[in-house]
Amino acid sequence: MAGKMAACIFCKIIKGEIPSFKLVETDKTLAFLDINPLSRGHALIIPKFHGAKLADIPDEHLADILPIAKKLVKATGAEEYNILQNNGRGAHQLVDHVHFHVIPKPNEKEGLGISWPQQPTDMDKLKALFEDLKSKV
To answer: How many CB atoms lie within 10 A of CB 112?
Structure first.
């Protein structure tokens, strides 16, 4: 894990080894502008705790994320926006350190574009899935 942390671009940003446009910083969290934005005000919020996927991050290191996202949205003045967090390459994660995108959606051409491949519902299968998941949470 230490080797991955040493090579992690977000860990280097946290340590100040790579400059960033810091917007908000707490003891557990850092928010900064994305240098390849999808729209004006596109920012990233990261826990200072290194972990590749959301399930790798202890809960106490996630507590600031949504309040900071709310502050950033208000600061941009965006009326429409996405909060996005990807886990794994198949889900479009490129940096293996948990990060949340705050992406203003000012118009059709800027911001996040989404495909939503909705699946048909089989109520018996949905009920079985519900029972399985409910027993595990």
So the answer is: 15
Question: pTM to 2 decimals?
Answer: 0.90
Confidence of residue 23 (pLDDT cuts 50, 70, 90): very high
Token pair 């699946």 in the structure block, residue = 119
- Annotated catalytic residue 101: no
Residue whose C-alpha is closest to residue 28's, from 62, 77, 66, 57: 62
Which listed residue (61, 97, 99, 101) is catalytic?
99
The C-alpha atoms of residue 81 and residue 104 are separated, in whole angstroms, by 4
For 98-123, give the secondary structure using H, E and C: CCEEEEECCCCCCCCCCCCCCCCCCH
Q: Give me the domains of the chain, ranges plus CATH numbers.
A: 2-136 (3.30.428.10)
pLDDT tens figures, 49-102: 999 999 999 999 999 999 999 999 999 999 999 999 999 999 999 999 999 999
57: helix, strand or coil? coil
